[in-house]
Design a protein that fits this description.
- This is Putative mannosyltransferase involved in N-linked and O-linked glycosylation.
- It is a single chain.
- The protein is of the alpha/beta class.
- The chain is 33% helix and 12% strand.
- The strands form 4 sheets. It has an 8-stranded mixed β-sheet with strand order 2-6-5-4-7-12-9-13.
- Helix 5 runs parallel beside helix 12.
- The protein binds guanosine-5'-triphosphate and magnesium ion (MG).
Length: 432
């Protein structure tokens, strides 16, 4: 008995020794470290705050469902790079242009997040969008992603989205006061509007939830607790497509150039949904002339010096913008003035014209940016950069014939004219 125990102990010792030798011979000469989000731009974080922010009852963070091994990556130094050492390269002509776009991008990170408003039932449509955003951009930047919903997110939604996002994910439930009728709304009048719009087959005309969504996106998403510690956002909707590689950090473009709002597609709003929006805006302008920017984009919004609205707006299902601008007093005062007038419910004001009019009037022209390099689709419109070399450089897969920019129903041509921008070669071939 004693003899067999000793033999058994010898076998164990030999096995341990052999395993140890095997481990040292085969282990890679690089380390692995826990997956870490590269630090945000240190200067842009509010003092004393760290992401994720404190959790109110409405907030949740990503479920701890990832396997331990998912949190290990091959050592790749998180970026502490200073922006001076890694100047933004915006075109292949720039010395720092990264043609390979492999591995984590060098350069600083901004204090920024993606943000998506969605229902649990949108899970597969948003999964598709996330995959595109990650493949074309975020896999090299690992920015966070905030998901907001008027209902609690279910486990499937959280697990699917967390598995796709390379940064941290956060899930928030919207408080009821941001997703309901304000007390001053006359319910009978609101109901009559919906019935009337429904009879006239106006898209989403009969929908209460669509109106809550538009009001929420106009006035509340940027003040949710989960959004409060970020400076910049990039809005992503379900079922969008990105058609070109994104070689530089759009958040950094905004930050370094003093931009507050950006777009890729612009068009005319459906007049039936915003009949009195401009009257409300004019009232606001009269009450607050001090808020109107000296070098504003009134010419983009109006063809008669502000008397009437030409219905041009930036399409807000894509936006990269400054949260601090949306949280500023001029913007909040504008939203509250519109909200009091009731047009989110007595008509069907969309957040796109609301954001666009605000950007056009409260910001200087230089603070609005057109992201030509971000090729994008949201049903039914496409932005596909004009110019074959440009599309090849960015490895785009969009059909240039589908580019909406220069078509008659787009306002992008007008935007170029108002901003004295030169239209790209070949734009005339895409007008029809
Ligand atoms: N949580 C929640 N999200 C919503 C609701 N309605 C719309 N959304 C989200 O709000 C955003 C805009 O809604 P969409 O239905 O895409 O509106 P749209 O872009 O004008 O119209 P589509 O052409 O249908 O895309 C999307 O991200 C939706 O997922 C809702 O009732 N609850
Ligand atoms: Mg949509």
């Amino acid at each position: 008995m004693v003899g067999s125990n000793a033999r058994y102990a010898r076998y164990v010792a030999i096995a341990v020794f052999t395993l140890a030798i095997f481990y040292f011979m085969t282990s890679p000469d690089h380390e692995t470290i826990p997956l870490q989000r590269p630090p945000s731009h240190p200067a842009s974080r509010p003092p004393g705050s760290e992401v994720p922010p404190s959790h109110s009852p409405a907030d949740e963070i990503s479920p701890p469902h990832r396997k331990e091994s998912d949190d290990q990556v091959t050592l790749q130094k998180p970026s502490h790079d200073d922006e001076k050492d890694f100047p933004l390269a915006m075109s292949p002509m720039d010395p720092n242009w990264d043609d390979d776009i492999v591995g984590l991008a060098r350069g600083p990170r901004m204090n920024a997040t993606f943000v998506t408003l969605a229902r649990n039932s949108d899970v597969w449509e948003i999964a598709r969008s996330i995959r595109q955003v990650e493949d074309r951009f975020n896999r090299r930047y690992n920015y966070d992603w905030v998901f907001l919903n008027d209902q609690p997110f279910d486990d499937t939604f959280k697990e699917v989205t967390t598995s796709l996002v390379s940064g941290k994910t956060h899930y928030g439930q919207i408080p009821q006061e941001h997703w309901s009728f304000p007390e001053w709304i006359d319910q009978e009048r609101a109901k009559k509007t919906r019935e009337d719009m429904s009879a006239r087959k106006i898209i989403y005309g009969d929908s209460v939830s669509y109106r809550h969504m538009c009001r929420f996106e106009s006035g509340f998403f940027f003040r949710q607790p989960l959004m409060m510690n970020y400076d910049y956002y990039w809005r992503v909707e379900p079922s969008i497509e990105l058609y070109c590689d994104i070689h530089y950090d759009p958040f950094r473009v905004l930050h370094e150039n003093g931009k507050k709002y950006s777009f890729v597609l612009s068009l005319y709003e459906y007049v039936e949904t915003i009949k009195t929006l401009w009257d409300s805006t004019k009232k606001f302008m009269k009450n607050h002339p001090e808020y109107i920017a000296a070098d504003n984009s009134m010419k983009f919004l109006s063809d008669d010096g502000g008397e009437t609205y030409n219905r041009c707006h930036f399409w807000s299902n894509f936006e990269v913008g400054s949260l601090n601008w949306l949280r500023s007093k001029p913007y909040i005062d504008y939203f509250e003035s519109l909200d009091k007038d009731g047009g989110f419910f007595y008509e069907r004001w969309g957040d796109a014209p609301v954001h666009s009019i605000a950007a056009g009037l409260l910001l200087n022209k230089s603070e609005i940016h057109f992201f030509n390099d971000i090729a994008y689709y949201h049903v039914p419109f496409t932005h596909c950069p004009t110019g074959e070399k440009h599309r090849r450089d960015l490895r785009c897969h969009c059909n240039p014939k589908e580019n909406f920019d220069w078509k008659g129903y787009s306002c992008t041509s007008r935007y170029f004219e108002v901003n004295d921008m030169e239209k790209p070669d070949g734009y005339k071939d895409q007008t029809k």
